[in-house]
Amino acid sequence: MSPQPEDELGPGPGELPRPEDELIRKRQRERARVLALLLGAFVVLMFGITIAKMTINQ
């Protein structure tokens, strides 16, 4: 197994991450939050539809 180039390994111990790495991580966190909110809204919608169907059939 050949070692990876130093650029792909990320910052080593005691080193600060590069500014572009921080920007990438920030964007990933923002996307993850949006996706979590959308997933939560979808779950609530499905729950509401299920409850509505159950009350109609009774």
From TrEMBL:
<feature type="transmembrane region" description="Helical">
    <location>
        <begin position="34"/>
        <end position="56"/>
    </location>
</feature>
<keyword id="KW-0812">Transmembrane</keyword>
<keyword id="KW-1133">Transmembrane helix</keyword>
<feature type="region of interest" description="Disordered">
    <location>
        <begin position="1"/>
        <end position="22"/>
    </location>
</feature>
<protein>
    <recommendedName>
        <fullName>CoxF protein</fullName>
    </recommendedName>
</protein>
<keyword id="KW-0472">Membrane</keyword>
